[in-house]
Amino acid sequence: MSIDKETARRVAHLARIEVAEDQLEHLAGELNGILGFMEQLNEVDVEGVEPMTSVTPMRLPRRADVVTDGDKQGAILKNAPDAREGFFAVPKVVE
Amino acid sequence: MSTLNSLTIADARDKLRSKEISSVELTEVCNAAVAGSDALNAFSVKTPELALDQARVADARIAAGGAPDLCGIPLGIKDLFCTKGVASQAASNILGGFKPEYDSTVTSKLWDAGAVMLGKLNMDEFAMGSSNETSAYGPVVSPWRRKGSDAELTPGGSSGGSASAVSADLCLAATGTDTGGSIRQPAAFTGIVGVKPTYGRVSRWGIIAFASSLDQAGPMTKTVRDSAIFMNAISGHDAKDSTSANIAVPDFEAALTGDIRGKKIGIPKEYRLDGMPDEIEKLWSQGADMLRDAGAEIVDVTLPHTKYALPAYYVLAPAEASSNLARYDGVKYGHRAKLQAGEGIHEMYARTRAEGFGKEVQRRIMIGAYVLSAGFYDAYYRRAQRVRTLIKKDFEDVYATGVDAILTPATPSAAFGLGEMADVDPVKMYLNDVFTVTVNLAGLPGVSVPAGLDSQGLPLGLQLIGKPWEEADMLNTAYALEQSAGFVSKADKWW
């Protein structure tokens, strides 16, 4: 599997990272280098092996579905680049 | 009194209790050492006033009696830990100006124990790097230099500021985090002790996430005893981290008897790499001899999937990072890009992230997005998760034969020069983690112990890998190794 310029453009879009048109070729090359390194994994026989989802054999703990925290609007908005009237403010989303 | 900053935690604890010194005196000396250390670039934020306030409270608490071990001890805190009201940026421009409204669980526990914060420590951006060169604050410089050279060397990464600061006696100890070797590799490069606990031993809450299934915080200290004291303070269950283990925490310091008679230590043949410097090979066999002389039995073991650990890691860690770092969108905190007329929220997201993230972080987010994308998920991500199962099983098979710990080199080389790896393939840099990354994939505890100097006068470390939840036993073996190796070298002060 190899990444061409179009795939690099798609990956950059998926990652929501702006990449200039003249940088896409270079990016594709870098990503290919790293993916080439990962190809070694194809040598491993993984037939019948469970994919690991938790490194420690424990169940995710459950708790009662109740409110345990809150009333922190000011603290939550404190670091926002743009907060107005108790909300995060962003450029217009819906025309 | 000007050398108080070179004390260990254990010695400072005793002197504070005997009233030979006060925390304020100790903190003033450390503040001065930090103030004079700009050439190392280890600290991203200095908090001398806060430190003195904490020291005064600590002195009162010590005078009242019954204060915890870390009371009055000046520490450095890696920039990855959220600290209330003090900039916490993961060494990234995307978190420019971010001052958390809360403390991480680890730092809360440290402050509850009376510890003193000297400031925040530089690191690789979002802990992605092995040389501290990806930091938005610029690289950290190691206090160590090659014999007869003044070339600047890396302290390693990602916890490079922590390593440089502890090694240069700017603080008594520091916090680090380790996702693929980020505590153990810099500890080895700078001649200090670094511990990566069992996954789940230390709460991850309030630590800026890189790869959540691999991240674990731990101590970086001058001695094994200091790491044990530090572990006593930060370990334990936390309801705010759902992967934190609800199991009893032993007294790690009380376990340090130095008696390892009858312990079985495994030497994995797969860690003998082609092209590894002879000095590392030699140090490794000397380490085995030291443990044998202390009464341990040395056995050859095999970890057959070792060579696949790095490629599996470089699928899994970027995949988790691409998901974790999706939160940096210019809305909630940190940097937001300026828009041109006619541009909207999509441009804002993509430009904010292009401007805020450095090149290595961007590369890893994109690799992560690719391996998780439709059509490639099974071929890369799923396969890597399966290989991870096999890597963990390798260790389980070894421990099932009665082996208590595994001895390996900590790194495949001594510290390299800043800029030396600038033009090489990113994969070459990744090889730094070849001996440490297996431990994260298997969720095990590991410790790097300084064991000697190479022919250029640079520190080299050995790594002990323990059984899950057996940090106490692992640290005791590390303690025995430390006693035998007798590493006391310090970098000559040039900064």
Give a concise summary.
The complex is a heterodimer of chains A (95) and B (495). With 95 residues, chain A is mainly α.
Provide a descriptive summary of the structure in words:
The complex is a heterodimer of chains A (95) and B (495). With 95 residues, chain A is mainly α. Chain A has a domain at 5-42: Histone, subunit A (Orthogonal Bundle). Chain A is 32% helix and 4% strand. Chain A contains three helices and two strands. Chain A has helices at 5-14, 24-38, 73-77, and strands at 83-84, 87-88. Chain A has a two-stranded antiparallel ribbon with strand order 1-2. In chain A, strand 1 and strand 2 form a beta hairpin. In chain A, helix 1 (5-14) packs across helix 2. The longest helix of chain A has 15 residues, at 24-38. Chain A starts with a helix and ends in a 7-residue tail after the last strand. The model of chain A has no long low-confidence stretch (mean pLDDT 93). By secondary structure, chain B is α/β, with parallel strands linked by helices. Chain B has 15 helices and eleven strands. Chain B has helices spanning 9-17, 23-35, 48-64, 105-112, 160-167, 184-190, 224-234, 278-293, 309-324, 345-356, 359-371, 377-400, 426-430, 437-442, 471-485; strands at 43-46, 74-78, 116-121, 173-178, 193-196, 216-221, 264-268, 297-301, 405-409, 446-453, 459-466. An eleven-stranded mixed β-sheet of chain B has the order 1-3-2-4-6-5-10-11-9-7-8, sandwiched between helices. The longest helix of chain B has 24 residues, at 377-400. The radius of gyration of chain B is 21 Å and the shape is globular. The relative contact order of chain B is 0.14. The model of chain B has no long low-confidence stretch (mean pLDDT 97). At the A-B interface, helix 1 and helix 2 of A face helix 9, helix 10, helix 11, helix 12 and helix 13 of B.
